[in-house]
Design brief:
The protein is an alpha/beta fold and 369 residues long. The protein has helices at 12-24, 37-41, 45-54, 65-73, 88-96, 106-116, 139-151, 174-189, 203-208, 341-348, 352-357; strands spanning 7-11, 31-35, 59-62, 79-82, 101-103, 121-126, 155-161, 197-199, 216-219, 242-247, 250-254, 259-260, 266-267, 272-277, 294-297, 300-305, 313-318, 327-334, 337-339, 365-368. It binds pyridoxal-5'-phosphate.
Length: 369
């Protein structure tokens, strides 16, 4: 394929296989909910949602009502859970999209029936077992919220949920405590509400602790073949779906001492060839990668040198002359080498989630089945 200045290829077959892999590890007949918020973690929500459903996911989850509506507009009719906090307008939109919503206050539940405008509304009640973000902390309050849902003919208690704060930190003590609190809560509530779907696990919990699977797991990062523990996805049988490529738009010989880029933060230590790739922080290839990343060119690792600018980066190609035009891989494999998204994240002092979510709309996504 002809070179493109910046291109994210998304392997939808990998998304489907990651879902199959996750599903095969679920215990007690639990179902898989693929989390496709934030445009499918930057991969493209609609195509990834369809691939996840093909791979066996029974549910989809998003953060916002608009994300749910976008999936409906793309013709997706699977069950969708909107996980975020909702304004009255958001709640109305979520219900118009026939999505499930999350509640943790009685007042919100009482108004939901109004916002539903005669529609049936499916509600998941959320216990904050230690994330400290959304949900009610007091189990008694969640029980009252569940009763308020049951009391209203238009509302259905569709789920009981929580969210883990530290499932990705192996050996920590917080995760088992959250799991214990939630398990005790569900043991109390489930007998009176047998139809409510119980769910808690994100990708890390799903891979790490079968006791967290309950009726449904909500996996995001692992669906895209990225490692929730920010290490190597292959350790969990996951295949990265996204690769990010560019090409050498200009190659130039640099004498010893010649500098590259804004601030001239790099100078050639000896005569070398420097390639300019037309990709930069305007594409989401962040400035923190200045003098701090490798790029694959000709199947070899080459250091990114100089400051990342909005539209370009420079790479030390070495002493051999370059004609320019060589394909460059910033995330993904080339020859026998590969650069994982997790490597990029570690260099930036962040997590893989932020790297793919940060790829801007300027980068075309090319979907491969
Ligand atoms: C409530 C909730 N559940 C599940 C997930 C999926 O998490 P992960 O991508 O780590 O699997 C998220 C994502 O942040 C979330 O906010």
């Amino acid at each position: 394929m002809a070179n493109q200045r910046a291109l994210a290829r998304v392997d939808l077959g990998a998304v489907a296989r990651n879902c199959e892999r996750l599903k095969s590890a679920l215990t007690g007949g639990a179902d898989l909910c693929a989390v496709v918020k934030a445009d499918g973690y930057g991969h493209g929500a609609g195509p990834c949602a369809l691939a996840a459903l093909r791979g066996g996911a029974g549910w989809l989850a998003v953060a916002t009502a608009r994300e749910a509506m976008q999936l409906r507009d793309e013709g997706i009719d699977a069950r969708i859970l909107v996980m975020g906090a909702l304004t009255p307008e958001d709640a109305q939109l979520a219900l118009q999209a026939e999505a499930d919503v999350v509640a943790w206050r009685e007042g919100f539940v009482r108004r939901l029936a109004e916002w539903a405008e005669g529609r049936h509304a499916r509600v998941h009640v959320k216990l904050d077992t230690g994330m400290g973000r959304l949900g009610a902390r007091d189990p008694e309050e969640v029980l009252r919220v569940a009763d308020a849902v049951e009391d209203d003919d238009l509302l259905e208690l569709a789920g009981l949920m929580t969210h883990f704060a530290t499932a990705d930190e192996i050996g920590d003590e917080h995760f088992p405590r959250q799991l214990e609190r939630f398990t005790a809560f569900t043991e109390r509530v489930k007998p009176d509400h047998p139809e409510a779907v119980v769910h808690a696990a994100n990708s890390a919990a799903t891979l790490r602790e079968p006791a967290s699977h309950f009726d449904l797991v909500r996996c995001g990062i692992a669906v895209y073949g990225l490692d929730p523990f920010n290490s190597d996805p292959a350790e969990h049988g996951l295949e990265p779906a996204l690769s990010l490529s560019s090409y050498v738009g200009r190659a130039e010989h640099f004498e010893e001492g010649a500098g590259a880029g804004y601030g001239q933060t790099w100078h050639a230590g000896s005569p070398t060839w420097v390639g300019t790739l037309p990709i930069g922080y305007g594409d989401g290839w962040r400035r923190g990668l200045s003098n701090n990343a490798d790029v694959l060119i000709g199947g070899r690792r080459r250091p990114l040198v100089g400051t990342v600018s909005m539209d370009n980066v420079t790479v030390d190609l070495g002493a051999d002359p370059s004609a320019g035009g060589e394909p460059a891989m910033l995330i993904g494999p080339q020859g026998d080498e590969r650069i994982l998204c997790e490597e990029v994240a570690q260099r930036l002092g962040t997590i893989n989630y932020e790297v793919t979510c940060g790829l801007s709309a300027r980068v075309p996504r090319l979907y491969e089945q």
